[in-house]
Structure prediction request, 730 residues.
Amino acid sequence: MEKNAFQKPKYFYKTDLRFARLCVCIWLFSCQNIFSQQKVIDSLKIIIQKIKTQDTTYFNVSNGIASAYYVVNADSAIAIAERNKIGCQKISYPLGEGEAFRILGLGYNQNGEYAKAIDYYQKSLQIFKKAQNQSAIAKTLNSLGNTYKNTGDYFLALAIHREGLKIREKLKDKKGASVALNNIGNIYYDQTDYKIAISYYEQSIQLKEEIKDVLGIPMILNNMGGSYMKLGAFEKALAHHQKSIVLSKKNGDKRLLAMNLHGLGEVYRRQGKYDMALEQYKKSTEIKLILKDKWGLMYDFFGIAQACTAQGKIAQSIENAEKAAKLAKEIKSPKEYKDICKLLYENYKATKQYDFALQYFEAHKVINDSLYNIDKTKAINNLESKVALEKKEQQFEKQKEANAFQRIILYLVLAGLLSVLVFAYFVYRSRQVQKKLNIDLVEKSNELEVSNEELHQSQEEIIAQRDFIEEQNKSLEYHNTQVKHSITTALAIQKAVLPFDSRLRGILKDYFIFYQPRDIVSGDFYWIEKVDDEVIVIAGDCTGHGVPGAFMSLIAINLLERVVLQQKVTSPPQILRDLHTLVRLALKQDEIENHSGMDMGIVKISEGRILHFSGAKRPLYYIDASQPTEVHVCGGSRKSIGGLQNDAKEFEEVMIALPAGSTFYLSSDGLADQNNEKRKRLKEEPVLTALLENYPISMEAQKNAIKTILDKHMAGTEQRDDILLLGVKI
Prediction:
């Protein structure tokens, strides 16, 4: 992956200016792969020893060392960047601190710890956005997009790279833009859209040719070669790899040379030219062993194993596949490990080594389930015969069919809600027709008073209009019945999406949920899940109510499951940030006039009864059991999810340690905003007073007390919004 050049900091000590320029030049060399990463590290270490004080120059060079380390030794990069972060904080050097955070993200990404990497990239972005350093923002977005691509979240990765590309284009940074275009091409490649990937690679090469960046062209040629191979255009694939090999040798880039040799091996293998393929794979491994490139060696050994299997050399295939599997586990690459396990399973099965076959069959199955967020099935205890193995294979296929059925159910839910909208449209249309006909009837009645003669002339027309109105009324009644039935069905669907009481009782100790939609279905929702040893409690208030609000609540729940359950994000402010990005993308809010969104409160309960709270325009209320004399209020951030928001505002996090028996509450704004006959709002004071007065009794009694207050307040009026109040005892 191509790296961006180091940006010179704003301030240097005057005595070190000439020296700082030398540091920048060396770092630029490191980004172009003219020397090996280790040589760059050694050169920078010599320079840093000559710096007498830990100033901005020192930390620029030290960040350069960490950046060069992240490919060679990610753990060393992390250790150095951690020290640099602390040092930059001490001397108040935010740009250096932001770069240290970015390098920490690179290191954890290299180790496969993607959640940590994303967290550090977000911290880096906060610093660079505050400093309004657009170039650094674009560089960090590039790193963040690559990590999301590694997690398989191509939707978000694509959006982030496109955001970075826009910044590069505004800055007229053709080199950075070419990197972004190449990364976008890589995303389409991973999604098997090879023709689109090639179009982005071609745009990237065009920019590199314009700026005469001969060092960056070979990598893109290699990517294009891989794309043409996937399309079956083997001659074009060979031509691109061979051209890249010539340029790689000229540039002295052994790592890229080895990648292209592997690419040639892949093309020859797919053509059935297995001896030629093995020759290229072996040339590639010779270079990668010197470079200690574990990723590359894993792919080479796997390619050799596949070629040997095709030739019937099963023993050699197993030997190389075992090497590939060991490397895949070391570098934490589940996707590749899954494919290698499948090949080993097939080879061991073919040689009737059923114990080993079962071992790799189970490994493949578990990883496959993890990658697609499938519930884990019980592990196979023993394989005593070939019959037992075949039985497990059949179970695996049935489970895949069950997953497909679950997706169909989700589509049916969305289709059901769409039908509700269609019926609602017909009701509105029928009412408009009836209104117009009533006006016509009044006009006809006025004409009746003016002239009896005109009455006789128009009598037949009036009768016809009357009959038409009666038919319309019948049609309207029919559609009303259909809509009511559809909305009732939608209510059942929404209840099915919300967590059941039986599940909640297994997660929470004691709780109540006061949930009162305004129009059968609701734009308010609650979402409660347990992730490892942490409990996530969420109360959301979507734009609108009724059917539109219900649609937004379904979108929100779907995106929450994606962020929390699939991506394992449990930090409340990070959940809000990811949800904000995904809602804007899902509703295409950069392209169309749609400002829908939601307010939300999130509480994470971690070990030791510690609450981690973050709110999007919604507060947290809690009562401390050690001093139950008041209801404490933690206000949320003044920023909603979705719609047009001020990106400078951030979602804040509050941490509270509470003793056993304490309670906390999340709500929508519907309860406090409900008016009475005099159009006065209920407000939150009487609600908090009732919670405090009823705190010693059961949670259900608290719920009933709140309901009594609401019913008394809104007597003689209609409910104006959806209402949600959620209480949890720790």
Observations:
- The two ends are 48 Å apart (CA to CA).
